[in-house]
UniProtKB/TrEMBL annotation:
Source species of the chain: Actinomadura rayongensis
Domain Xylose isomerase-like TIM barrel: 20-252
The protein's name: TIM barrel protein
Tree of life domain: Bacteria
Pfam families in UniProt: AP_endonuc_2
Cross-referenced InterPro entries: IolE/XylAMocC-like, Xyl_isomerase-like_sf, Xyl_isomerase-like_TIM-brl
Length: 262
């Protein structure tokens, strides 16, 4: 299977079925969707919305890659409000027929000390069991150094658990994503977020021109099965030329990756 090039719905000026059509118009192979929630747009599992997304995917040929629970950054992954959101996330992933649901650990979900680490591991252990029961993979996107990331996976202790690699967030945390790819490759989800940084006057720099060191990370990922490179630069301003340039950059590099899922 070739490595696909996809888009992240939450970085587009459209959502739901409209984001699938926007991905098709841009020439992307697939799209990662967001569960939505207060401040993040309509819930993806609202009546008729999931069916509309599937219909758009069938009509355009755009692959539905994953569902992200970005709302958990607002409520906190280890809070009492998180588990109902996680259940909705997993059930929506099943309804859409995607293989991966993932949760970020930033802002109110940040893993910023031993207590947060232990609580996050416990929540992810429960969620991974729920994902496995549904035939899904559960991903965690975080900025833990490799040793702590491996410890997190050890504590979760589930064959359904994966780490979602972002090519720039670790740089902001003082880490090297190429090193993370090299030492945690066996734990990575086969969908990788591709972005560069830091933002300049509100817009993400074109892929390959920022400080993420993308060439080194993609080089390390050649030894890891990667099914999709998902562009996560910010395209919400509707700049189609910048999106097209980034898609072309990603397509030049995608053939160097395996694309064979685990």
């Amino acid at each position: 299977m070739n490595c696909a090039v996809g888009l992240a719905e939450w970085r587009l000026p459209a959502s739901g079925a409209a984001s699938v059509r926007a991905a098709a118009e841009a020439g992307a192979d697939g799209v990662q969707l967001d569960l939505g929630g207060p401040g993040r747009g309509p819930w993806l599992d609202a009546p008729g919305r999931t069916d509309a997304v599937r219909a758009a995917a069938d009509a355009t040929g755009v692959r539905l890659l994953a569902v992200a629970g970005n709302h958990l950054n607002d409520v906190g992954l280890t809070s009492a409000a998180a588990r109902p959101v996680l259940v909705r996330l997993l059930d929506t992933a099943v309804a859409l027929g995607v293989p991966l649901a993932f949760v970020p650990s930033f802002r109110r979900s940040a893993i910023d000390g031993p207590d947060a680490f232990a609580a996050t591991a416990a929540t992810l252990r429960w969620a991974a069991a729920e994902a496995e029961a549904r035939g899904l993979l559960l991903g965690s996107e975080n900025v833990l150094p490799c040793g702590k990331a491996r410890e997190l996976a050890r504590r979760v202790a589930s064959p359904a658990f994966r780490l979602v690699l972002d090519c720039y967030n670790p740089v902001k945390a003082g880490l090297r994503p190429d090193c993370l790819a090299a030492c945690c490759g066996d734990l990575l989800a086969d969908q990788v977020h591709l972005k560069d940084g830091p933002p300049d006057t509100g817009a993400s720099p074109p892929l390959g021109t920022g400080t993420a060191g993308l060439d080194a990370t993609l080089g390390a990922l050649r030894r890891v099965p990667v099914r999709a490179l998902v562009l996560e630069n910010d395209y919400r301003d509707g700049d189609r030329a910048r999106l097209a340039a980034d898609l072309a950059w990603a397509r030049r590099h995608a053939p160097t990756l395996s694309g064979t899922p685990r």
